[in-house]
């Protein structure tokens, strides 16, 4: 705390990202990074972009990348917004749409950046409890609100809402913005992007960090009605007109051009997820159904903190959340078959009761 801070800074509880430990021979399964390399086309594009052009500012509109994304999803460039990771895109959305007299609604167990943004921007919010199966129950979201946001699949649970259920909500909520945060949608769900032309209050956000293995470049997307995108652009240009650098732009564009590689990696992760789920169940874990690149698991007869600590001693890192209702759960990123095998190998040495 400093006497030089603005008053609001003293009240902030910042988001705590997943640990990035510097340990040798680490099996890192705690931050939902893609275990596979980016497309070879991405590496080639990055190498080609490292030239004298780096002395120039990038295009502030990122039009080439936006057009690439628009063509990929069957949209127009005016329906696409890009930012420095989906966290920045979400921050701009909170500022642009959710500073209302009525509360923003989101789940009680969800992406923990949401309440951080609310405190930063002075947004009134109300959390809606997940049901007993840790799924998002939509009926409470039909109450009067100043906006709705949730991930699909949800994080950290991995549970998926069907596209039909999302449209059910949109049909009953036309007076405020609904943001569907699709960071993990490529691992098993149907994107709500097919609904953006039908519902002008729908904004869909995505990231290239997970399924496209570009977490190190920080590229996020938002797609929706042109009026919503214009609102985001106004906020961006009041904050940072150049969020996407030249290297990130060409890398992202190249990623969308290599559909075969993208599809192959997603299939491999989905297959590994299902195998890991079966192996964990064999060891006595309860595993929530996941449509993401991670599993949310609970062992009914062993403490989650103890399991995480024992794994860490053997160089395997998973994530534990000290939060009511889920403090007995671990979130485990789906790695390569070799990484998952190492996790299971260590768990077997703990002799967990079935």
Automatic annotation (TrEMBL):
Signal peptide: none annotated. Residues 25-347 form the Aminotransferase class I/classII large domain. It catalyses: L-histidinol phosphate + 2-oxoglutarate = 3-(imidazol-4-yl)-2-oxopropyl phosphate + L-glutamate. Gene3D superfamilies: Aspartate Aminotransferase, domain 1, Type I PLP-dependent aspartate aminotransferase-like (Major domain). Pfam families: Aminotran_1_2. The keyword Transferase applies. Homodimer. Belongs to the class-II pyridoxal-phosphate-dependent aminotransferase family. Histidinol-phosphate aminotransferase subfamily. This is Histidinol-phosphate aminotransferase. It comes from Candidatus Thiodiazotropha taylori.
């Amino acid at each position: 705390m400093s006497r030089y801070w603005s008053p609001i800074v003293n009240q902030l509880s910042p988001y705590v990202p997943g640990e990035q430990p510097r340990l040798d021979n680490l099996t890192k399964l705690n931050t939902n990074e893609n275990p596979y390399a980016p497309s070879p086309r991405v590496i080639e594009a990055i190498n080609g972009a490292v030239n004298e052009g780096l002395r120039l500012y990038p295009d502030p509109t990122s039009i080439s990348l936006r057009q690439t994304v628009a063509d990929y999803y069957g949209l127009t460039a005016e329906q696409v917004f890009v930012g420095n990771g989906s966290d920045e895109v979400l921050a701009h959305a909170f500022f642009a749409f959710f500073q209302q007299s009525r509360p923003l609604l989101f789940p009680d167990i969800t992406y923990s950046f949401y309440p951080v943004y609310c405190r930063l921007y002075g947004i009134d919010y109300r959390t809606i409890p997940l049901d007993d199966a840790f799924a998002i129950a939509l009926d409470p979201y039909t109450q009067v609100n100043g906006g709705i946001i949730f991930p699909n699949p949800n994080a950290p649970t991995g549970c998926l809402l069907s596209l039909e259920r999302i449209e059910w909500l949109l049909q009953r909520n036309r007076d405020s913005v609904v943001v569907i945060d699709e960071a993990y949608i490529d691992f098993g769900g149907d994107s709500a992007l097919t609904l953006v032309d039908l519902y002008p209050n729908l904004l869909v956000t995505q990231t290239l960090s997970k399924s496209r293995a570009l977490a190190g470049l920080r590229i996020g997307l938002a797609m929706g009605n042109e009026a919503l995108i214009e609102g985001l652009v106004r906020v961006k240009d009041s904050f940072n007109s150049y969020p996407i650098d030249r290297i990130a732009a060409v890398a992202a564009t190249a990623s969308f051009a290599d559909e075969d590689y993208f599809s192959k990696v997603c299939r491999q992760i989905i297959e590994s997820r299902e195998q890991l789920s079966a192996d964990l169940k064999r060891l006595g874990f309860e595993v929530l159904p996941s449509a993401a690149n991670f599993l949310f698991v609970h062992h009914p007869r062993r403490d989650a903190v103890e399991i995480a600590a024992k794994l860490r001693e053997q160089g395997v890192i998973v994530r534990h959340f000290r939060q009511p209702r889920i403090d007995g759960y671990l979130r485990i990123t789906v790695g390569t078959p070799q990484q998952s095998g190492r996790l299971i190998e260590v768990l077997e040495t703990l002799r967990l009761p079935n």
